[in-house]
Amino acid sequence: MHKFFDNPAERIAPPGARVPASVSIGGVEIRPATVLAPMAGVTDTVFRRFIRNLGGCGLMMTEFISADGIVRHKDKKAKQYLTFYGNEHPISAQLFGSDPATLGDAARVVQDLGFDLVDLNLGCPAKKVVKCNGGSGLLRDLPLIRNIFDSVRAAVTIPFTVKFRAGWNDNEVVHINLAKMAGDCGLAAVALHARTREQGYSGQARWEWIAAVKDAVKIPVIGNGDVRSPEDAAAMIAQTGCDAVMIGRSAASNPWIFRQIEQYTQTGSYDLPSDAARYEMIRTYFAMLIEEKMVGAEGKMKQFASWFTHGVPGGAQLRKAVYEAKSSAEILDAVDRFFEALLSSEPSAEHREQLVTGDIRERCASC
Ligand SMILES: Cc1cc2nc3c(=O)[nH]c(=O)nc-3n(C[C@H](O)[C@H](O)[C@H](O)COP(=O)(O)O)c2cc1C
Predict the structure, then answer these.
(1) Catalytic residue IDs
(2) How far is Cα of residue 151 from the mean position of the Cα atoms in its chain?
């Protein structure tokens, strides 16, 4: 199991650098200019509403959804992935696939369901997606991407965006050409995860690629990769000039990050959650999962408990107890025992620091 942030860079935000208060994407107002990244197995309706309730996130995105699964109506999972509630607006549905007509048809379904935006995934490195020429597999076929852009653009009136990696590998980077093509084809914004497919999650996201895309296009640019704190978010805006910041892994290990960014934008500082707040937060999320009768709720609870307690003293014990639990009730019991013990002892300053910097571990072996 590899660690996500295996080479954290020191990102310095110049004094006064801040995430913009808003950005307009094809007429949809995103306020503030922060985006919850699509994450397979994570950003379902429960997680999105949980983040929305904590505050500070401007745009929600679904996990990626197979266009084929939507159009053929055979895929029950696709239906589950398309479920959302009123308080998730503005929300974007992310599609993957490689057939222009199917993607156009799926985008129409997304629009009819009331999504505010539709997004195309050109970043997923998962073998099963790349094998069907979807995700980052398409990065080697710009003419096909153009056909997809044209087909989806013609199929819907809601804003259409694309999220992509910079290329297949260092010798085949296409971020500038791809972003320009998106602008030419009438897409409303581009989001760049500033790594190549071959890079996976290793090393650092190369923010200079985001800056280059920003220089090349007139449509809004959303920067993505390695934002772990409000200071990182402000540094990304300052260093790249991008219009909004997209956050993935840190939203799972520190769901308060959007609220912290908003607070930092307004005041120049931000609060760290207390242990009691963390306890309440994890219980709230678990209660929402159970109430929604979410498929795979127990697995999601286990995964979340694991991310959330990395770097926390005693966290390994909790992870073991949660891993061995056989029901939602047993998982809740382990969490209760862990936090009750934690709250009855005074945490050290070092502990507090660890609470906000704990990394999350691999969830989707590939994305
Ligand atoms: C568990 C997991 C699942 C992901 N699933 C998707 C996905 O469905 N679609 C997508 O475009 N990117 C996916 N990604 C990539 C993220 O959206 C994001 O680009 C990446 O994590 C880099 O941002 P970060 O450094 O803020 O985490 C996934 C990432 C993770 C960790």
Answers:
(1) 124
(2) 26
pLDDT in tens, 308-344: 776 677 778 888 888 899 988 898 898 898 888 888 8
Please state, in angstroms and rounded to a whole number, the distance separating the CA atoms of residues 182 and 107. Answer: 16
Element (H, E) at 290: helix 275-291
| Rounded distance between C-alpha atoms, residue 232 and residue 187, angstroms | 27
Distance CA 321, CA 343 (A): 18
Give the burial class of 183: count Cβ atoms within 10 A of its Cβ; 0-12 exposed, 13-18 middle, 19 or more buried: middle
Question: Residue 215 corresponds to which tokens in the numbers above?
Answer: 């220089």
Instruction: Determine the Cα–Cα distance for residues 10 and 28; give it in Å rounded to an integer.
Output: 33
- The encoded tokens of residue 342 equal 């934690």
The C-alpha atoms of residue 359 and residue 367 are separated, in whole angstroms, by 16
| pLDDT at 305 (0 to 100) | 84
How far is residue 244's CA from residue 146's CA, in Å, rounded to a whole number?
A: 24
Whether the CA torsion 225, 77, 302, 93 is positive or negative: it is: positive
Distance 39 CA to ligand 1 centre (A): 5
CA distance 308 to 50: 14
Enter the tokens of residue 301. Answer: 């609870």
Residue 80: CB atoms within 10 A of its CB come to: 14
| pLDDT tens-digit series, residues 111-144 | 999 999 999 999 776 666 666 666 778 898 999 9
Q: Which two tokens stand for residue 133?
A: 């020429």
Pocket test for ligand 1, best of 95, 138, 249, 366 (most atoms within 8 A of CB): 249
Centroid of ligand 1 to alpha carbon of 344 (angstroms): 36
| Contact status, residue 197 vs residue 157, Cβ threshold 8 Å | no
Percentage of the chain lying above the pLDDT 90 cut: 61
The owner of tokens 């107890």 is 321
As to burial, measured by CB atoms within 10 angstroms (0-12 exposed, 13-18 middle, 19+ buried), residue 213 is buried
- Average pLDDT estimate for 257-284: 92
Expressed in angstroms and rounded, the spacing between residue 367 Cα and the centre of ligand 1 is: 6
